[in-house]
Specification:
This protein has about 325 residues and is an alpha/beta fold. Helix content is about 50%, strand content about 10%. It has helices at about 10-20, 35-45, 65-70, 85-95, 115-125, 140-145, 160-170, 180-205, 205-225, 240-250, 255-265, 270-275, 280-295, 300-310, 315-325, and strands spanning about 5, 25-30, 60, 75, 100, 130-135, 150-155, 175.
């Protein structure tokens, strides 16, 4: 039986921890949130996912050392804003001698680093061969229900990829290997921004034509930014790009899409986040994406419009007007 430490117990973290524990692995899930951990210990379910009971081999703790010591695998599921701090703690305690798999999706603000790059910078180059990631279209509730899902995994060390594939694969959770780790990560991070735009569009009643245009042109923006990280364009046509973009822009469970709808309904950004009650990664990554775009002189109008709404108090209708007034160019893909 493999022993797995899971860092982070949000909705997605809980969903994946349950999946791993359902395979018979001994999983220790860590969170800094004492009330949430106490609730999960007592009720055996997540406070935001009622009705999905944790398997017997899944335990919960507020002691990060317990989740790191003696493990065969460590999985990360914290926020993109918090990942540097968490892994600084990991380094202080002692980096475990096992693969470390990231499942969060984002780009660090100010540095422009992908999350695997953040962890690598914190832990040191000597730990590069341990680091991998899992990404793709995967709504936690549907994974917990055992509905069919397909994702993609990658790693700096090709030998780690088959391990990720083996550990996470089930009869309903299909894992595809991919050796383009930057492409896998970038697609998963940037699609959240486009999902906010789609939520705003739906909230304003613009219909499916508008949403289809946002998703298509949004993917184009993701591909343009991918150049800065040396990603393979075909990766973004797959599960980590188009696949994740579809589910995040279309699902009723998508917090980024819901955030956009609330904004369109008149909520201020902070009030919308509070209403959702969970981290909205697209708002964090939006700033990172704009920093990269400006540094590389890349036009990303959909991303910029979301940025203006979230950070510059532009109204959703003004943002749409700003988008539509842009000059039309030949479609380039």
């Amino acid at each position: 039986m493999k022993k797995i430490g899971y860092l982070g117990a949000g909705v997605w973290g809980y969903g994946l921890a349950c999946l791993l524990a359902s395979k018979g692995y001994e999983v220790v899930s860590w969170s800094i949130e004492e009330e949430a951990v106490a609730f999960m210990q007592e009720k055996r379910e997540h406070p935001k996912l009622k009705g999905f009971l944790a398997p017997p081999s899944l335990s919960f703790t507020t002691d990060i050392s317990e989740a790191l010591t003696g493990q065969d695998l460590v999985v990360e599921g914290v926020t993109s804003a918090g990942i540097r701090h968490v892994f600084q703690t990991v380094k202080e305690i002692g980096v475990p001698d096992c693969p470390i798999i990231l499942t969060s999706k984002g780009i660090e603000q100010n540095t422009g680093l992908l999350l695997t790059e953040v962890v690598l910078e914190v832990l040191g180059q000597e730990h590069k061969d341990q680091i991998g990631c899992l990404s793709g279209p995967s709504i936690a509730q549907e994974v917990l229900e055992g509905l069919p899902s397909s994702v993609v995994c990658s790693a700096y060390n090709p030998d780690v990829i088959p391990l990720i594939h083996e550990v996470f694969s089930t009869t309903t959770f299909r894992v595809y290997p991919n050796f383009d780790i930057n492409g896998v990560e970038l697609g998963g991070a940037l699609k959240n921004i486009i999902a906010i735009a789609c939520g705003i569009s739906d909230g304003l009643g613009f219909g499916d034509n508008a949403k289809a245009a946002l998703m298509t042109r949004g993917l184009h923006e993701i591909r343009k930014l991918a150049v800065t990280k040396g990603c393979k364009p075909e990766t973004l046509n797959g599960l980590a790009g188009m696949g994740d973009l579809c589910v995040t822009c279309l699902s009723k469970f998508s917090r980024n899409y819901r955030f956009g709808r609330l904004i369109a309904e008149g909520y201020e950004p902070e009030a919308a986040k509070k209403e959702i009650g969970m981290v909205v990664e697209g708002t964090y990554t939006c700033l990172s994406a704009m920093q990269i775009a400006k540094k590389s002189d890349i036009e990303v109008p959909i991303t910029e419009s979301v940025y203006k709404v979230v950070y510059e108090n532009m109204s959703p209708k003004e943002a749409v007007k700003w988008l539509l007034q842009r000059a039309t160019k030949e479609e380039y893909l």
